[in-house]
Amino acid sequence: MAVSPVLLRTGAVALGSIVTGIGYAALIERNAFVLREITMPVLSPGSTPLRVLHISDLHMRPDQRRKQAWLRELSSWEPDLVVNTGDNLAHPKAVPAVVQALGDLLHRPGVFVFGSNDYFGPRLKNPANYLINPGHRVHGEPLPWQDLRAAFTERGWLDLTHNRREFEVAGLHVAAAGVDDPHIDRDRYDTIAGPASPVANLRLGLTHSPEPRVLDRFAADGYQLVMAGHTHGGQLCLPFYGALVTNCGLDRSRAKGPHSGARTCGCMSPPGSGRHRLRRCGLAAGPKPPC
């Protein structure tokens, strides 16, 4: 049977768009460092504003000097709290580069969880696999996540991996909890399950991959804000169109930025090997989460 010229042209346009998108991400967006600012009214009524810097998906290599220099400049914003949602590493010798790049931010109050690419190195793969074979997992060599954890905790950051912690920051009471990366089925929400402190000004949940099963549990336990990474704003995107796939259970419309449910706000940070954008969040008091 002959193939319609219209179908051939349509297929060629679609293929050309995908190739263009991959080239755009590889050659342009991976060096397009952007700091985005958003305000989220999620604090309890009467709370003073809180400045939060959300860092995720650095995928750092020792030779990425430009990225490291850009990160070092972020300390000038003087956030009240730094939130790191994982995938910091992309090389077995990258821990010193991450620590040096974060610089003075490690002396600010901070919390973190890890992602799969803190545990395992990247492997060369076809980006289209995010579309045609999303469940396929290929792990690279083991990465020194224990060294990274030690570097973070020695400087005062709190590891929220299957932990619940309450602390004061900028005069506010924060109740925070986190899980290990759901993308590789390391999440064990039952270890932190239970209502979050009702007296906290901010009830904060952390996860690397924003899987709905985890987001729903955080919401049910009363967390006002859940912060995640992993999606890179869409693991595969087209210019002027956006995400084709999120590589998790979220739909494409929620690949990045703030989003709200009935009880909880979520914030997906888009930085990563293809998109280096960090979230500078101003948290304010509000009657409900209209993110």
From TrEMBL:
One of its GO terms (molecular function) is UDP-2,3-diacylglucosamine hydrolase activity. Residues 50-233 form the Calcineurin-like phosphoesterase domain. Pfam families: Metallophos. Keywords: Membrane, Transmembrane, Transmembrane helix. The chain crosses the membrane at residues 6-27. GO terms for cellular component: membrane. GO terms for biological process: lipid A biosynthetic process. This is Calcineurin-like phosphoesterase family protein.
